[in-house]
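Box 3.1 A note on notation
Throughout this textbook, protein chains are presented in two layers. The first layer is the amino acid sequence; the second is a token string describing backbone geometry. Keep the layers aligned when reading.
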Amino acid sequence: MAYKFITYHQKELTTEEQIKKSETFYHFLDERRSVRDYSNEKIDVRVIENIIKTAGTAPSGAHKQPWTFCVVSNPALKTKIREAAEIEEKKSYEGRMSDRWKADLEPLGTTWEKPFIETAPYIIVVSKRVYETVNGEKRNNYYVNESIGIACGMLISAIHNAGLVTLTHTPSPMNFLGKLLDRPENERAYLLLPVGHPIKKAEVPDLQRKTIEEIMVVYK
């Protein structure tokens, strides 16, 4: 069945307006940092809903929207998720990760311990939907990893826009998340993000991002 096509309207901006808006947005997102120290200050669930709706506007292969966002605030469930995540992380730090990998992480101060899973008022577990079942027939989705990656980028930006903080956590393997959240067979956990406010004296590494010359190549 073909989609009905409608006229698209985009507000026209002058070159000066484009430069100003793009620069302002860059500086805004440049303030975003991955935070590991969270307060337990409550957040209105409507904020979380708006953040996820924003992520849901991401483009996807054949518009299949192959994502599910599991929002967890239940303390007992968060404790179970932390315990399971730390089991996998401890195994990674003690044997799965190379010495070079651990050396690269050392300046960031990360360890196998993940208290933010319990402390943050919400965690969002993003799952990719590998396929759908329609009338008993299995139908694969397209460009699933690319689609979910774009959605997660927009999710992180939306969290920052709401005045909140997050970080990306990818315990490996992540199968335990699907089991604890009782997700269907067609879903695979992709990313875990705590969402909340930082503690009053939260600290982050004093990092420098690559310059525009290092990340952009122009072909004229």
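Residues 75 and 118 are 7 Å apart (CA to CA). The helical segments are 15-30, 45-55, 75-96, 99-105, 116-119, 144-161, 175-180, 212-215.
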